């Protein structure tokens, strides 16, 4: 089986029926579904949560007025090509724009894909020079696109170049590869990213418990055995994981695969992705339910990327809000002498302020 990359290939595989608007959706974003993800799709389920993430839908052609081409404001914070400098102590470095799969809800859906621009050797050197010239940069986050799509030798050279910059203490990679194309996590690739002087962390994007199939778990095991700490990143998606039972199973599966759940991302205001969006009220309700069910080790932080490039903030739920009302400023500044705190099971208790 090969990665499917065209509507015709999806139609031959029975995943879509010909429909003119689908061509419009496929035009707006590349298609790629790896054999591992194809193998997880339940063909008898018209609402299969794996298929929903990767198979184009006519819903993508509906653009709501509040949706944005650059929902997290990468452009506004681009310092030099390939570098997004949003916070003083860290930068994003985007060496490539290709991915092993194309997730229909992607917050960079207008940038990723085979037509996207990878950095040339000279541009990559300029991006590394920018990091070298800014001593406040403590952490470099390789993202894109998927940095694990780079050839191991090129990736190793890039990590070595970053590692040689004394003020870079942490190198973080964000990837979907261990889950969707686990065979790519070879000994050579693990060797390429193995920690050197700087600490190296890997964020793994995973949205449904079924994605943690045996091959993916084995790939994560190879990375963990190499001493690479693993973090889980999940996007909250309608029809994929917006049920407490699904999130419960996913967070447990991540922890048992030695991946610490890190962020549950509220879906961004990406153009053509209204069918994936869940309300913040629903997200908070799900988080509240998880608090009562899962150990702290399995709890992600529910975050929103503030549109316009203003960064991420945790969006709750707050366990003091029941007493103080819903005004967030009341929580941030003056607290009364006596608080009431809501426990994980929904009961409130007094606590001295
Ligand atoms: S792998 Fe990540 S960057 Fe690539 S399409 Fe999916 S969400 Fe977007």
Structure description:
The chain has 353 residues and is of the alpha/beta class. Helix content is 31%, strand content 16%. It is built from 13 helices and eleven strands. The protein has helices at residues 7-12, 20-28, 35-40, 49-54, 121-132, 152-163, 177-180, 187-193, 214-225, 244-256, 280-293, 321-324, 328-332; strands spanning 83-87, 90-93, 139-142, 170-175, 199-205, 230-235, 259-265, 301-305, 312-314, 338-342, 348-352. The strands form two sheets. It has a nine-stranded mixed β-sheet with strand order 1-2-3-4-5-6-7-8-9. It has a two-stranded antiparallel sheet with strand order 10-11. Helix 6 (152-163) links the parallel strand 3 and strand 4 (170-175). The N and C termini lie far apart (61 Å). The relative contact order is 0.11. The mean pLDDT is 92. The protein binds iron/sulfur cluster. Iron/sulfur cluster binds next to loops.
- For the terminal residues, how far apart are their CA atoms? 61 Å
Structural class based on helices, strands and sheet pairing: alpha/beta
Shape: globular
- What is the C-alpha radius of gyration, as a whole number of Å? 21 Å
| Annotation field: number of helices | 13
Provide mean pLDDT, rounded: 92
Sheet-strand content, in percent, reads 15-25%
Helical content band: 25-40%
How would you write the strand order of the largest sheet? 1-2-3-4-5-6-7-8-9
Sheet of most strands: 9 strands, mixed
Spans of at least 5 consecutive residues with low confidence = none
Total number of β-strand segments? Answer: 11
Give the SSE order as H and E letters.
HHHHEEHEHEHHEHEHEHEEHHEE
How is the quaternary structure best described? single chain
Bound molecules: iron/sulfur cluster
């Amino acid at each position: 089986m090969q990665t499917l990359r065209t509507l015709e290939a999806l139609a031959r595989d029975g995943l879509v029926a010909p429909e003119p608007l689908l061509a419009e959706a496929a035009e707006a974003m590349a298609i790629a579904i790896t054999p591992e993800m194809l193998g997880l799709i339940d063909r008898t389920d018209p609402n299969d949560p794996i298929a929903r993430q990767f198979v184009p839908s006519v819903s993508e052609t509906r653009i709501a007025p509040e949706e944005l081409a650059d929902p997290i404001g990468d452009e506004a914070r681009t310092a030099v090509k390939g570098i997004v400098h949003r916070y003083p102590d860290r930068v994003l470095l985007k060496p490539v724009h290709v991915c092993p799969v194309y997730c229909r809800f992607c917050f960079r859906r207008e940038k990723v894909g085979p037509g996207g621009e990878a950095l040339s050797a000279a541009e990559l050197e300029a991006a590394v020079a920018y990091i070298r010239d800014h001593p406040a940069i403590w952490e470099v986050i390789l993202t894109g696109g998927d940095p694990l799509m780079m050839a191991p030798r090129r990736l190793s050279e890039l990590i070595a170049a970053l590692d040689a910059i004394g003020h870079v203490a942490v190198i973080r990679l964000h990837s979907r590869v261990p889950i969707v194309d686990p065979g790519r996590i070879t000994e050579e690739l693990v060797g390429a990213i193995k920690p050197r002087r700087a600490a190296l962390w890997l964020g793994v994007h995973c949205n449904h418990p079924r994605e943690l199939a045996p091959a993916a778990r084995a790939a994560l095991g190879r990375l963990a055995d190499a001493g690479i700490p693993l973090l889980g990143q999940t996007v909250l998606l309608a029809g994929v994981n917006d049920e407490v039972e699904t999130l419960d199973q996913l967070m447990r599966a991540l922890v048992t695969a030695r991946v610490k759940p890190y962020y549950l991302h509220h879906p961004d205001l990406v153009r053509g992705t209204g069918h994936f969006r869940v309300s913040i009220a629903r997200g908070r309700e799900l988080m509240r339910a998880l608090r009562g069910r899962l150990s702290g080790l399995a709890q992600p932080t529910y975050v929103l990327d503030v549109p316009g490039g203003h960064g991420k903030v945790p969006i709750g739920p707050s366990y003091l809000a029941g007493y103080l009302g819903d005004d967030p400023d009341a929580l941030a500044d003056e607290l009364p002498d006596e608080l009431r705190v809501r426990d994980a099971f929904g009961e409130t208790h007094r606590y001295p302020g």
